[in-house]
Design a protein that fits this description.
Elements: H1 11-27, H2 39-46, H3 50-62, E1 66-68, E2 74-76, H4 81-104, H5 108-124, H6 129-145, H7 150-168, H8 181-192, H9 196-215
Antiparallel strand pairs: 1-2
Helix pairs in contact: 1-3, 2-3, 4-6, 4-7, 4-9, 5-6, 5-8, 6-7, 8-9
Length: about 220
């Protein structure tokens, strides 16, 4: 496994490009949870100095994507069952706030139309695992954006890397069980009916089921 070399990159943006490349490699599953990230190999693959790679890896540690193991060796983070459940509880709180603000908004009908449009991507993705992941996360990101609360969106984005790592820790044939149109439609229906209690309950059930799924044992 390797990342694409960064050739002819302006030095003023080199560190940002390296960080972006490594973050993308982790969150896309090129490097999977538990994989070792060696400075020497990464620097050679990217065509940059070890110091530049070291700085990027430090940022990824702060984002929760990379963790230091034995002898300080850096590996792609693998969340514990407790951490996964905590992650999805926070998502439930954030997305519960999103549906609360949407239902209170005078633009609720337009938001419902936008969400129904966004959910079609889950159907269009078919059996393409990468497309299914993007469609699923895209729907939830859109839900937060349509709340009109930029701080909520920022908070959700802060979790996105760890959400992706959690998803990538499952085999591709297991993860899509939580990424279907039918799993998401009830959220939109409750918003359309302006039933706040039902909307929050649906979001909480959705996140609880996802936590159980991703924290549960993998197929043998």
């Amino acid at each position: 496994m390797s990342v694409e070399p960064l050739s002819s990159v302006d030095r003023s943006t080199l560190r940002e490009r390296v960080l972006h490349a490594l973050r993308a490699a982790v969150t896309s599953g090129t490097y999977r949870p538990g994989d070792h990230l060696g400075e020497v190999d990464l620097a050679a693959s990217l065509g940059v100095s070890r110091g530049t790679v070291r700085e990027a890896l430090r940022h990824l540690q702060q984002e929760g994507l990379v963790t230091a193991g034995a002898r300080g060796m850096l590996r792609v983070n693998s969340l514990s069952q407790e951490e996964i459940h905590g992650l999805f509880r926070v998502r439930a709180a954030l997305e519960g706030l999103a549906v609360t603000e949407i239902i209170a908004s005078p633009n609720r009908k337009a938001v419902v139309a936008a969400l129904r449009s966004a959910i079609t991507a889950l159907t269009d993705a078919g059996d393409d695992f990468a497309a299914r992941v993007e469609a699923d996360l895209g729907f939830h990101m859109r839900l937060c954006e349509l709340s009109g609360n930029p701080m909520l969106v920022e908070s959700w984005r802060h979790l996105e890397g760890r959400i992706r790592v959690t998803i990538m820790n499952r085999d591709p044939d297991e993860a899509p069980a939580m990424m279907t149109r039918g799993r998401h439609t009830p959220i939109i229906d409750a918003i359309e009916q302006a039933d706040l209690a039902a909307a929050i309950a649906v979001v909480e059930e959705h996140m609880s089921a996802a936590a159980d799924h991703f924290a549960g044992p993998r197929k043998v």
